[in-house]
Design goal:
alpha+beta; four-stranded antiparallel β-sheet; 4 strands
């Protein structure tokens, strides 16, 4: 079977699984606690509540969500890419549509439990499609457009928007549910930060006797260069070379495989990099790897 076809099937499988997780988290936990979900989905739920309160008409959240996402989708289309935007828009439509029409199940009557577990399940579902190189639309369109250009973690800014939305909810409908919404947003954001580490960098030290072969292969297959330092093994007294390079977290597994293919005896040390400045190639959002090991 063609490897590209297998990758496409795997991507579709994981995206579908993420959409189902997010939809279940919304309908079975978030909506049960009267909590506002994040981003434009939360804005859509708020609009639905206002219209229902004033007219008695219950309009599906999907209608509001598609309308709210139109302009952000255009921005994302120009900045991030066509495939990313189309997939993300489809995901956004899917999870709101599923959440609108799947049966509601009351697993707990405790609003705090629903807020916490809703944040965990929705955050986990969202992180899955992020790791597939797509998003759930809305503020993610805007946040990932900015992060693609400036290479920063966007989710703190998304949380700031969500908290502003929650304050509006508290002003309109009472502060009790607004406080539960803040708990949900915090848990949701932390779950994504834990599971999705696209913009984290890793420093890799490679001790090898085949520096030219390893460094050439790294440039050719990963696009990352390296700095070569001469050294001597303190035990063996043999001359060796240390290659120093920095890659993004999703690329770590791939880079170590490249090194091992060139030199199975290479010693590799991987460290977390808190900040990187200078000429460093970040992995684009659309090139994220479907790898459960990062």
């Amino acid at each position: 079977m063609n490897s590209n076809f297998k990758k496409a099937c795997m991507k579709i499988f994981f995206i579908t699984f993420g959409v189902l997780c997010y939809s279940i988290g919304l309908k079975w936990f978030v909506y049960q606690a009267n909590v506002l979900p994040g981003g434009f989905t939360g804005l859509s739920v708020l609009a639905q509540k206002l219209i229902y309160q004033n007219t008695g008409k219950l309009i599906p959240v999907t209608v509001f969500n598609v309308a709210c996402n139109f302009i952000p989708a255009l921005i994302s289309y120009r900045v991030v890419g066509k495939k990313f935007t189309l997939f993300s828009f489809l995901i956004m439509f899917s999870f709101t549509f599923i959440a609108d029409y799947i049966p509601a199940v009351e697993l707990s009557k405790d609003f705090l439990i629903n807020a916490i577990f809703g944040g965990i399940i929705c955050g986990f579902g969202a992180s899955i499609w992020f790791r597939c190189g797509v998003s759930g639309g809305g503020t993610d369109f805007l946040a990932l457009s900015v992060s693609s250009k400036y290479h920063i973690k966007p989710f703190g800014y998304v949380m700031a928007f969500n908290i502003s939305l929650i304050l509006l909810q508290g002003f309109l409908f009472g502060w009790d549910f607004a406080f539960y919404s803040i708990i949900y947003q915090y848990v949701y954001t932390q779950t994504i930060n834990l599971c999705y580490r696209h913009y984290e960098a890793r420093t890799i030290f490679i001790i090898t006797t085949k520096p030219e072969e390893v460094s050439s292969s790294l440039i050719e297959k990963s696009g990352h260069s390296s700095t070569q330092l001469e050294g001597v093994g303190s035990f063996s007294k043999n001359k060796k070379c240390m290659l120093y390079t920095v890659v993004t977290q999703p690329e770590v597994r791939r880079v170590t495989q490249i090194v091992k293919l060139c030199d199975p005896e290479a010693f590799i040390n991987i460290m977390k990099s808190n900040e990187v400045q200078g000429n460093f190639r970040y992995l684009s959002v659309e090139q994220d790897y479907i790898d459960i090991n990062y």
